[in-house]
Amino acid sequence: MYYDKRFQTDLQFPFVTFSHLQVKLSTTGGFLLAKRNQFDGISERLLNIKEETLKDLINRMSSGEYVKAVTDAEKDCFKIIHDLDHINGRVYGSTTSKKYMRNEIWSLVAARGAPSWYITISPTDIKHPIALYYADTKEKFIPEVKEYADKFRLISHNPVASARFFHFMISLFIKHLLGIGSYQTGIYGPTAAYYVSFVRN
Asked: The organism sits in which domain of life (predicted)?
């Protein structure tokens, strides 16, 4: 956290940054897929796909019908969707990335069993002094009682501070209460497994 927080307090900056990141990851994923040996098959399917078959599948899926590929044309359409998943799986916030996370969770349940605890955590950033310090521009931490409007203004103008505070609190919960990466056992006993998704660099 730096004294100069112009990028953090810019309302358009997070949206623009995330959009550029998605474009970058989509482009990189496309290049990686194109270098593989199935590039010829993918390009051939894209060139020879039948538009009427694709529209028919879209209409049937939109109506809630369970669609299973029967003809060769329908199988080619499903293969294209599978090919696109290789790219979208690398893009943050995409439908495919969420599908992959669901698959990871189901795999974890299959390996370790159903969860014993469901814990919902919602750190209140607007009332916590650490979050307010992250959102402020002061380099030294000086505890002071602020009005509700001032606290709300600080937090709402700096979403980066809220995100960093949430990450900080969840990391403490995982380490000290669950005992992950700590020398002592968590308060719930030995933790067999947990699932959390952080943005990967």
From this structure: Eukaryota
